[in-house]
Give the backbone structure.
Amino acid sequence: MPDQSHALNAERTSLLDSLRRRAVADLEHCETSAALTRWTSQYLGRQDGEVNAILRGMKDIPGPERKAVGQAANELKGELEALASARRTVIVTRELAAQLARETIDVTLPGRDLPLGGLHPITRTIRDICDIFSAMGFQVIEGPEVETDYYNFQALNIPADHPARDMQDTFWVDPGQILLRTQTSPNQIRIMEQTSPPVRAVVPGKVYRNEAIDATHEAMFHQIEGLLIDEVTTMRDLRGCVERFAREIFSEQTKVRFRPSYFPFTEPSAEVDVTCIVCKGSGCRVCKQSGWVEIGGSGMVHPQVLRNVHYDPAVYRGFAFGIGVERIAMMRYGINEIRLFSQNDLRFLNQF
Ligand code: DAH
């Protein structure tokens, strides 16, 4: 029946027309790739797309009409695809331009510096101290951190039952035999065993003591040992040498004071103080208001120590000293907390 089929046809055509109008209007509102993707799946989607829904529904349409409707639907599909593709070009171009504007790169900027490491303030201080003694003719030598009881104590005139052992609470590896050195002094023995006089050497390095840790005490710290042996050296030379060192490392105004003291491996022995570089001697917290700060011990090498290494004390004589590196670094850089040295905190280390 032609009338009825004509009516059906008109109905389907107007369905396609309104679909076209809706799709075109929606497309004009698509401003982003994401919106366009949503639009594409709504209208042209293989599964649920509206155009395909019409094409799928065609199996219900009688033969002659099916062709016409199919053709119209396919045309609509092609038309919408072309419109979408044109729209995509516009959107992509616009989005790319926006992205480029957002992500401008100034290729003329200089590159970023790689962070370079620096020397730890203790390493720096040790090197400076060694440079000063090198200039005075001292060799720089290193020795083992794990020592024997013999080198750390006995050969330095500190027998097993000697009360001086109580001054240095020791970390034992093998009790009574092997230990972490409590001082750099065992290198006095090692050097003298290996060379004949004259001797002029300094030995920097780590030492270990079972200390109660606080702002000025650590269980691991650094010393520099000094040893000079010849046939004529006196305590005046020791004094001059230490004074020269103090003035080089701090300032020419620095004064040195020797305080009588006791070490089993030196006789006489003296504690070495320098005028506080923070207050210049007038009294402050660093020097506990005394104006002086102790930097180490020293003395004339004990004849028994010389005999222990088969040096004849009737012929040879010399002096020795041991300097605390942390003390010196703390004064030089104005640091009031010794634990900062071993905490590996970049906020502290970056300052050097
Ligand atoms: N070794 C001593 C200590 O750690 C310091 C010392 C004192 C070293 C006198 C010396 C010296 O060479 O002569 O307490």
